[in-house]
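Per reviewer request, we include the raw input and output of the structure prediction for the construct analysed in the revised manuscript.
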Amino acid sequence: MDSPKSSILNEETRNYELHWLEVLFDKNFSLDKEGMVQNIWREAMQFGIGNVLGISTGTRHTDRARIGARIREIREARGMEARDLAKLAGIDAANLSRIENGKYSVGFDILAKIATALGKKVDFIDL
């Protein structure tokens, strides 16, 4: 039976990610197991294949798009214009547009400013 996480990915994506995990394992194999795992984990995140390790909810692009859409959803529910949110958060309106459209990878500091301006906080949640 598929785990909940494996049922999210299609077969082609799973095979692609498992192939790259195998490559990373071969590349980083070492008797120092802790170091080996850290290297595999770091490189998996760099290449956007964290799903197979259970450390990502999707690709970097889909995560950016999901976060941006959520920001827009909250902003619109509050009846705020994008330029007003950008001003409250202290960021450029063009950058906010790129964030909301999933075209810009937002760092934690900026994300926290946007969340505060929306009356929210950044938090970790269970998947």
